[in-house]
Each structure stands twice: as C-alpha cells, then as structure tokens.
Amino acid sequence: MVGNRDYTSVMARKGEIMKRSVGIDYSAFESGSIAFDYEGMMRETGYTLEEIIKIQSRAHVGNTPIIELRNLTALARKCAKPGFGARILIKDEAANPSGSFKARRAATAIYHAKKHGFKGVISATSGNYGAAVASQAAMAGLKCIVVQECYDSKGLGQPEIIEKARKCEALGAEVVQLSVGPELFYKFLLLLEDTGYFNASLYTPFGIAGIETLGYEIATQFQEKYGRCPDMVVCTNAGGGNVTGTARGLLKARADSIVVGASVNLAGLHMASDRQFNRKSFTTGHTGFGVPFASWPDRSDVPRSAARPLRYMDRYVTITQGSVFYITEALASLEGLEKGPAGNTSLAAAFALAQHMLKDQLILVQETEYTGAGKHVQPQLSFARENGIEVAFGDPKDEVPGENLILPSHPALIKATDVDLDHIRSSLIKTALAGGKVPTEGDIKFLAEETRKDEAFVKAIIAKLQED
Q: Terminus of the chain with fewer CB atoms < 10 Å: N or C?
C-alpha cells in the first residue's frame, strides 16, 4: 500500500521500496557493523558469466571489435622519448545497440526484470545508460521510464544531456526531466512505488555483472589476436561500475593487465550546485562523480553499491577538459573515427600514458561511445562560451574548471595526472568509522579488501584518525 507522499515519508520507505523494485534483500548481506558480504551480494544475480554472455548475445550486445589506432600511436611516439610509445587500441563499444558499453549493464537487468514478471523498468541517469535501458526494454517489450537531471533553475541544459534525452525518447522511453538538486532521488522512489517497475539501477549486481563480460572479452580477444593480454587497460571512471566490472572480468580471464581509472578533472566544481551545473563541459566521467564514489561507493541509489572501484584500480589519473576535446578531434581527423566524449576521456589519458611505455607494449581504451548532435565538440564549446567560460589554446595545466577551457597548443602538452589513491583510501576508512564506530576484526579485514591494502595499512589509518 502506498503511504504518504511527502519527502520525509518517501525517504523513510526507501529500504522497502528498493527491496521490492530490485528483488534483493540487502540486509541479508549485512554484518551489523561496517563490513558486508560483497561477493555474496554479487552472487545474488544468480547468473554465471557464461549465462550472461548468452543473455547479451541474444540482445545483440558484446563481441565488439578491437581497433588499433596506428596514426594516434605515431603521434604519441613523436612526443615520447626514443623507444617509447605503446601501441594504442580501442574496444569499439559504440557498436553495441544503444552505442555504448552500458548496453552490457542494461541487457542483464532487463532480462532479469522480464524473467521475474515486471511490466517495466525505471532508471535514474543522465548518461548513456538511459539509452541502453530504453533500447533493451524496447527489445524485451517492457515499458521504460528514464529520470534525468537536465537543467539548472533557469531551464538551461547542456547539449550533451539534451542529446541523451532525445536518444532515450527515440528508443521509446518516457523521459522525466528534472532540474539539479535533491528532487531526483525522491521522484525516482515515487515512480518506483507508483508503477511497481523494476529498478534498473547502474549499481545493482546485475549491472556490474553485465560489464564483467567486457573485461573477459578483452582478455580472450587479445589472446586470440596478439597472443597476450594488454599491458594496460584504461577505463573512464565516474560511479565506479566501469572499472569494477571490467576489472572483475579481466580477473576471471586470469589477465594481469594494469587497470587505470581516468576522469576529467573538475576539481572545485560542486555537482549539486545550481550555479555551477552548467559551468562544466562534461556530464559524466569526471571527478565530480569519480572521486566521491571511489571514496564512498554507497552514496548510490541502492543500499549497497556493487561498483567498488578502489578494490580494483591500480592507478587513477585525471585529464583536462581541453585535452579530451583535442583528442576527440584528433581521433576523427587522424583515424576517421568520430566518437563521443566518455571513451575519449580514457583515450586522452592513454595518449599521455603510452608515451611512458615501451613501443612493443599494448595499451587499451576499453570503451567508445556513440556521438550525436549535442555530443559533438562544437556545441559543447559554444555552450561553454555562452556560460562565461573562456575557451583558448595554451597549456592544459593552466585550465581552471568553471573558469576556462584550454585546448592544448601542442599534443605533447597532454598529460595524465595521478590521483593520490592512499588519500582516497583514507577518506573511505574515515567515512566508514563516522559516528564513532569501533571496527571489529571483521571490519578491518573488510576495509583492507575495500582499499586493496593489507590490514596493517587500515590499522595505521585508524590510529592516525584517532590521533587527529
């Protein structure tokens, strides 16, 4: 029975709403303290990797091509020391039905929703995932609602987000467009309760298990084509699912590739700020999501997020907005491939990282995404100028998010900047202990797994926090 519809009452019911709409009793995996059974939660999907590959194959998802970027590699080598400049490759996930790797997430969730008798699905996302859910729902004959945060309080929306809304509608979804603020989660919960639809969240075990096929596919395709796995795999990082799923798939294939997360640097901009909402030129794959979700994954729209990137990242780097726009143009003009900005964030990072790797090494960007009218470089740059952002050529290190956007005056100026992962690990532990929680031995072990460090590291951080 539906209860009161005011904000406080709806938020108080979020646990029961989630349980009904996802079909997972998250409390079954809780320890009563900080720790929870992450792998037990992941097994809750009930599908093996092989079964998910079959589910995706029936929905025309996966088995996407790997493309070597010979001209971009040659350009990177001109900027590198002699003997350096790894071969740069991309996994062309834009070949999936909705034009991105998000189809892998959606295919598993939609299959599960239909199998369990749900009449429709709902997803809260302003990214490519909305189109993926809409596409897969259309194939399965399910209704689809996509809730998007599109506008500031003046009704202005970024071309890239509006483009994604158009794509969702073209695929038959009802799109609920909201302005920036806390309204989104409240509206999302109300829709789940009113419709009884399945919550096709980005962060359920179904979504992350769907991406595992990407990592597994990378390993098997590279073994067949090159006789070895890529030395480095670069994943654009926002909410952490892309890194988590890809790395888990690589591990299941026994690949030993270094996994690097990459985000656009938007330091200083607040994502929930109405004033700053349109002062960024990227709507996903940036530090506004990447850093907070890495330092505390359970801020997502489900009680426990299956996306936990700190468990899997070997490195985390940032790249500037101007560098991504430059590489987007370089990919089109040198390789004849026009792709959207999300995958090109990783490509800009890979272009810089390749210059520090030996020539015979292989570096893979594990996704591309579709592009469209609003996703192209010019609409985004024009929108930036209209919102008071200075656009100029120069050194990207001088870029200040929200104030200017610097296109590199030379490709050698494109640099990947390492994020201090130990700082993020410390932040995660601090958040876990908030409210004066005293960790058990089980919690210490759990936090060591969460941060991909040993128990001594966790105990040292806890001791430092207690001193402070």
A: N
What pLDDT sits at residue 2?
60
Residues 372-377: contacts with CB under 8 Å, at least 24 apart:
372/163, 372/166, 372/167, 372/340, 373/159, 373/163, 374/158, 374/159, 374/160, 374/161, 374/162, 374/163, 374/164, 374/166, 375/159, 375/160, 375/163, 375/340, 375/341, 377/325, 377/328, 377/329
45 with 108: CB under 8 angstroms? yes
End-to-end CA distance of the chain: 48
Which residue, among 61, 164, 176, 44, has the nearest Cα to 122 in the 3D structure? 176
Cβ-in-10-Å burial (0-12, 13-18, 19+) of 19 comes to: middle
Which strands make up the sheet holding 174-179, listed edge to edge? Answer: 174-179, 143-151, 120-124, 198-199
- Is residue 426 a contact partner of residue 461, using CB atoms and an 8 Å limit? yes
Q: Over the stretch 137-173, which tens digit does the pLDDT of each residue have?
A: 999 999 999 998 888 888 888 888 888 888 999 999 9
- The CA-atom distances, in angstroms, between 140 and each of 59, 112, 211, 237, 252 are 9, 11, 19, 29, 29
Long-range Cβ contacts of 34-37 (<8 Å, 24+ apart): 34/432, 34/433, 34/437, 34/439, 34/440, 34/443, 34/446, 34/447, 35/440, 35/442, 35/443, 35/445, 35/446, 35/447, 36/304, 36/446
Q: What's the average model confidence in pLDDT over 287-291?
A: 92
Say yes or no to pLDDT of 1 above 70.
no
The pLDDT of residue 245 is 97
Of the ranges 119-123, 175-179, 281-285, which is most confident?
A: 119-123
**Closest C-alpha among 345, 308, 315, 313 to residue 327:** 345
Is the CB of residue 104 less than 8 Å from the CB of residue 61?
A: yes
d(C-alpha 206, C-alpha 450), whole Å: 20
Task: Give the mean model confidence (pLDDT) for residues 335-345.
Answer: 93
pLDDT tens digits for range 213-264: 999 999 999 999 999 999 999 999 999 999 999 999 999 999 999 999 999 9
